[in-house]
Amino acid sequence: MRKTYPGRSFPLGARVSPGGVNFSVYSRSSTGLDLLLYNAVDDAQPAEVIHLDPRHNRTYHFWHIFVPRLKAGQVYAFRAEGPFDPPAGLRFDASKVLTDPYGRAVAFPKAYERGAAVREGDNSAQAMKSVVVDPARYDWEGDLPLRRPFTRTVIYEMHVAGFTRSPGSGVAPERRGTYAGLVEKIPYLKELDVTAVELLPVFAFDPFDAPAGKVNYWGYSPVSFFAPHPFYASAAAAGPLGVLDEFRDMVKALHRAGIEVILDVVFNHTTEGGNGGPTFNLRGLENEAYYILEPDKTQYANYTGTGNTLNANHPIVRRMILDSLRYWVADMHVDGFRFDLASILSRSETGAPLADPPTLLDIENDPYLAGTKLIAEAWDAGGLYQVGSFIGDRWKEWNGKFRDDIRRWVKGERGSVNVLPARLLASPDIYEHENREATQSINFVTCHDGFTLNDVVSYNDKHNEANGEENRDGANDNNSWNHGAEGPSDDPALEALRERQIKNFFTYTLLALGTPMIQMGDEVRRSQAGNNNAYCQDNPISWMDWSLTGRHAGLLRFVKGLIRFRLHHFIIPEAEERPLWEVLRELEIDWHGVRLNQPDWTPDSHSLAVTVGRKGSPDRAHMIFNTYWAALDFELPPLPGARPWRLVIDTNLAAPDDIRDVSLALPVAGASYRAAARSVVVLIGSLDGG
Fold first, then answer.
1. CA distance 519 to 540
2. Contact at 8 Å (CB) between 387 and 380?
3. Integer Cα distance of 229 and 244 in angstroms
4. HSE, side-chain direction, 13 A CA sphere, residue 356
């Protein structure tokens, strides 16, 4: 029998030292705990079972043990004994194999079966396991998080696997859909000029947490908050430890290209689901601590729409979340986090919103995370909507109102003109009262959840039949418009109009004050055939279609030019993160209609123009927004010295005239400019001193 030692309660998880491994796990209500050691993840039974003696291996609510001679790569798990008493909030089941909540690597056996964690009886052969990791065993070669300011950030939201899963990606078959595959496509991202990738969840998740016959593609079903998803590793990855190395290779390569890595993190629920769900770890270790339960403790509060809600403000969960974030920054070098359904982290153990939620304040004020990007999806599925009122001073917010209002304006909806100035100027109606910087608003028109940009202009209605839920899932109101025909069209005039509208959307998003975010493939008109909830579609519906880069090369060129214009030439460079009111106070902003200084704010208005520049600077930009169904002549304000305006962008023109480099911008003759129907025009004056 192996000799063991009591070990330490801190740090939590499995920590490697020269003499062996220390294990520590929180389980307040358990009456016994076993450490299971496996020779391999596919073994049906553990090679060794070590029973922890509460007299020696328990300190307060923490079970701990030091096992000599163990090393990184050791496969392990736990079994916890205790009462199965759902009315009391307790769901112990000593027959279930439990992964370590702090495990740095997760391995799935070939015989993995989600249902085995629900049924009665031993599930050792079918259960996922944890793997001991030594994070120090990696050469970062001097790499560190980039800490690029939000003022110089353009975010590209993408799916690690979907980016290269298609054979058309040009990635070798064994690397398609992997961290290594993404590395091969970094030149594309670099050429696009985006400065950050926001990766859909890479925390290890259960891909089988989906309706029968489907898979969980998006990854919003975490089984670990520390382990990278093993199925995104290539065939070349040498086991679970190779998964970590491949993830870190990806981060290092992106950093070398000047691209930050932002993770979409899910701290609001887990894959264990609601009553009747599987027991993987948290449910079997301390159910009542880790989850928010209803007054009837047999039921789980469901503010997420997924069956359970993480009890984020319980002290042990707060610690786990903060430890997770620190780990991903310290040992995995990520640059930031986008928090899925972040408003849930403001809910108390009873589900009520807290005025000063400890977890969110801990994250914001943690010195180790001081230079890390923090982005909140400031709402949840339980009706809590906090856009403009999210706690703290550092959090940026997905601005859902930007998405909705810009969509309404571009499709020409009545009464949409009045909010356009606010959306273009970083939404002061939402954020100015907080004395926050302009970059607080993350401006986007599309994201993974909803239509692609191509589908926004091609479908009036969702078409989610492929999901197997009779088209009941997904949002019903998309503020979309098919422009006369539902879905793909062979009509050249219709397709030209749709492409023009797509260019319009990009122009609003990338030239508005705030932090822009665009979605993978929108720059080449990727379509999901009208599916606005493709969470279970790991197939060409969701994948990047690389053939589109040639088919829509003109649009791709336009987006590249637009990003470069924003980052290097735009008339309002946000050189530092200062309060929005300070930025706006330094600007000279004049609103116009088709006639100078006569903007039309009536509900039936479909046109607006604005002249903007910094006080004391000769540089000016004049932007024309025409959502009317006919061309309109807009008067142009005179520039000092009778200099001409120069045309940089006209979304109605064909490439290469739709966007020009500032050095090649053509002078505009006359005192007016004819803006085509449903187009955006950007003119500049004096940017090059001419």
1. 16
2. no
3. 9
4. 2
d(CA 573, CA 558): 20
Rounded to the nearest 10 degrees, the angle between the axes of helix 315-330 and helix 358-365 is 30
Q: Which amino acid is at 682?
A: V
| pLDDT score for 321 | 98
Give the separation between CA 551 and CA 153, rounded to whole angstroms: 28
Q: What is the pLDDT of residue 614?
A: 85
Distance CA(328)–CA(326), nearest Å, equals 6
Top-tier CATH class for 587-685: mainly beta
Query: Which residue, among 288, 287, 285, has the nearest Cα to 78 in the 3D structure?
Result: 285
Q: To which CATH superfamily is domain 13-131 assigned? A: Immunoglobulins (2.60.40.10)
Q: Are 13 and 104 in contact (CB under 8 A)?
A: yes
What pLDDT is recorded for position 689?
A: 46
> Given CA atoms 653, 655, 659, 661 in this order, what sign does their dihedral have?
negative
Is residue 40 scored above 70 in pLDDT? yes
Q: Could you give the 3-state DSSP secondary structure of residue 265?
A: strand
Range 301-305, long-range pairs (CB < 8 A, 24+ positions): 301/351, 302/274, 302/381, 302/382, 303/268, 303/341, 303/344, 303/347, 303/351, 303/380, 303/381, 303/382, 303/384, 304/268, 304/269, 304/341, 304/344, 304/380, 304/381, 304/382, 305/381
Alpha-carbon gap, residue 33 to 62, rounded angstroms: 10
Per the listing, tokens 């398609």 go with 176
Instruction: Determine the Cα–Cα distance for residues 216 and 481; give it in Å rounded to an integer.
Output: 29
Residue 432 falls in which region: left (phi positive, over 0), alpha (psi -120 to 50) or beta: alpha
C-alpha 93/C-alpha 382 separation (Å) is 30
Burial class (CB in 10 A: 0-12, 13-18, 19+), 508: buried
Separation CA 635–CA 637 (nearest Å): 7
- CA distances for 21 relative to 4, 65, 536, angstroms: 10, 8, 38
Please name the residue ranges forming H helices in 466-545.
492-511
Span between the terminal Cα atoms of the chain, in Å: 84
Which residues are marked as active site?
A: 340, 377
> pLDDT band at residue 410, thresholds of 50, 70 and 90?
very high
| Residue 281: alpha-carbon gap to chain centroid | 25
Contact of 89 with 293, CB cutoff 8 Å = yes
C-alpha 558 chain-centroid distance? 24
Q: Residue 291: pLDDT above 90?
A: yes
**Beta strands 396-398 and 373-376, pairing class:** parallel
- What phi, psi does 113 have (nearest 5°)? -145, 120
DSSP states of 206-263: -TT-SSTT----S---BS-SSSBPGGGS-TTS-HHHHHHHHHHHHHHHHHHTT-EEEE
586 confidence band (pLDDT: 50, 70, 90): confident
- Cβ proximity of 271 and 210 under 8 Å: no
Cα–Cα distance for residue pair 196/156, rounded to 1 Å? 6
* Domain ranges for the chain: 13-131, 587-685
State the Cα–Cα distance between residues 104 and 327, nearest whole angstrom: 9
Cβ atoms within 10 A of the Cβ of 591, count? 17
Tell the residue number behind the tokens 């990806």, with chain if given: 250
Report the SS3 class of residue 84: strand
Answer for the pair 32, 50: CB distance below 8 angstroms, yes or no. no
Residue matched to tokens 């007016």: 672
**Secondary structure class of 106 (helix, strand, coil):** strand
CA atoms of 673 and 454, how far apart (whole Å) = 28
Q: In CATH terms, are 13-131 and 587-685 the same topology?
A: yes
